[in-house]
Amino acid sequence: MDYRQKIIEEGAMMFRTYGIRAVTMDMLASQLGISKRTIYEVFSDKDELLKGVLSWMMEKQHEIMTRIFTESGNVIEAIFKMLDLMMSHFQKMSPAFQMDMKRLHRDLYRNPEELTDLPYFSNNSEILKRGIQEGVFREDIDVEITNKCLLEVARMSNDKDVFPPDDFSNKDVIRNFYINYLRGISTRKGLDLINFYEKK
Predict the structure, then answer these.
(1) C-alpha dist (Å) from residue 132 to 83, 128, 135, 138
(2) Rounded CA gap, 12 and 106, in Å?
């Protein structure tokens, strides 16, 4: 593993644990056991490092989601596995990281290609098309419009200002927003599968 990859992976862990503002290049260098100069030879500043971290996180998440999508028996099973992973992802992520992304890096936060608080649902098109082919989603839905709606539903369900974690659990919010939206576009077969996986 080269220095760039080591710096990115350690940076990702520290950003997610302590938040972006709290992590300094000195802290990162100390944690890695290298000089700060070595980091600056690879990344010009912390913003460039953050972009590298986000790009790496998205690539890693895409690989995991692709594996889940291809290995699941049906699209509803895949969705529930992705939701479980997404909720685990949020539980491990410091609220400070999400707040820093929103307050300090809104340019990245508003860019769908680098959206970190919704890592698994930036594009539902493949999920929707597979669901239609499997007969679990209605054939009359518009994939492009429904994809945008699902993204907004997922974004709203993760908005800590709207649903403070002290008052609402991630699981309940996701179920009441995302799962109920899925019910609305599902066939009888899809509804039966949703009921089955919810009980599990």
Answers:
(1) 20, 6, 5, 6
(2) 18
Taken in order of first residue, the domains within the chain and their CATH numbers are 57-199 (1.10.357)
Q: Please enumerate in sequence order all residues whose Cβ is within 8 A of that of 42, keeping only pairs 6 or more positions apart, or say none.
A: 3, 4, 7
Can you tell me the distance from the alpha carbon of 65 to that of 184, in angstroms, rounded to the nearest whole number?
24
CB-neighbour burial class of residue 172 (10 A; exposed 0-12, middle 13-18, buried 19+): exposed
Residues 136, 127 contacting (CB under 8 angstroms):
no
Residues in the chain: 200
Q: Read off the pTM.
A: 0.75
161 band by pLDDT with thresholds 50, 70 and 90: confident
